[in-house]
Prior knowledge:
Elements: H1 2-21, H2 27-34, H3 38-51, E1 54-59, E2 70-74, E3 80-86, E4 90-97, E5 102-109, H4 114-131, E6 139-146, E7 154-155, E8 164-165, H5 167-174, E9 178-182, H6 183-195, E10 200-206, E11 209-216, E12 219-220, H7 252-256, H8 258-267, H9 275-280, H10 290-298, H11 302-325, E13 331-335, H12 341-354, E14 363-366, H13 371-383
Parallel strand pairs: 3-6, 6-9, 10-13, 13-14
Antiparallel strand pairs: 1-2, 3-4, 4-5, 7-8, 10-11, 11-12
Helix pairs in contact: 1-3, 2-3, 4-5, 6-13, 10-11, 11-12
Amino acid sequence: MKHIQDIKDKNKKNIIRLLYTKENLSKKRIAAELGLSPSGITKICGELIKEGIIIEAMPMKTEAVGRKEIQIQINPTYKYCFGIVINHKKTTIVLTDLGLNIIEKVSFSTLADPQKHINLLINSLNELMENNLLKNEQFIGIGISVKGITDAQFAYDGIWNTVVDLKTPIQKALGIKVALDNGVRCSALLEQLFSNEKNFIFFKYMEPGIGGALVRNGKIQRGETHSIVDFGHLIIDPDGEYCSICKRRGCLESIISVEQLLNYAKSNFSIDFCPVFWNLCEGLNSNITIKNIIEAVEQGSIIFNNVFQRNAKLLAMSIINTASIIDIKKIIIIGDLFSSKRFTTYFKGAINQLQLTPMYDRIQINTHSDVILSSVVLALNEFLFT
């Protein structure tokens, strides 16, 4: 009996995941997607409808004659979720329904004192619940995406210079289950959900940092020291400065990170350094952004073009080295700089130059990742899909 129940629970989970992955699904189409019998899917969907997790929506538009198929959807008001994203500069909290629709969002600076920051988080979460007349039993869970290394309970580095238990005090204060992971793995979960890829190496090159994750058989992999595919901290220059996070010399993060690029632009900012960039920023230090750096490159800035060429080559080299160790064909990259045609061209050229056998066709590049929703997906993955 337990074996039968396990199969039923697994099928329920697969139906729920599928409804997030694809649109315009009926019971018949769900059965076809999952390779299950229509009668079995009808029975399981009936149970999920009774539980309130899914709903029957409008009849689907088809050319077929006869009874119309009814669209099956996630019931957005079944439960709610909190997503929290914490990096060393800013913290953002988002309240969503089960349909991933954002109801309310707040942001504030990350406090240097971890205990004060946890208290601020708890107060903010309580306030959001009160504002929207919600109680803790109406929540599926809280997903927390944190910069740096974490073991799903403690944040070890990346933000504070001490080990911080983020999970226990928040879970205890609100009476809502909490899931915790780092930003890269949360983004990989989001990518896995919407792309439905089962096996891939995931690389993230964005302003909060550089990192990697591994998805195998549809599941995020975790190492014994909680840093599997610690991509951002590969040593690429043994003569470089020590990284404040990993304590290694000349790692990728300390040399080509978006933050380093912004610091380089700010420390050299003048009309003589780069007239094109100066004009784009209207001579204001506050206008120094990645968007304006990319525009300066597109307009022919030699200085920033040289930086883009170097960064693209070092990124390509690190990706090739990582992919040569992990035997998974699909590579997914999300990065701020890939919105630049020139950076993308430099990166592709470096991949083709450094490896003569075909590799670029294995790579999928995205320019954007919804970091906030990735923390919500973490909660769904922990408390709804399982």
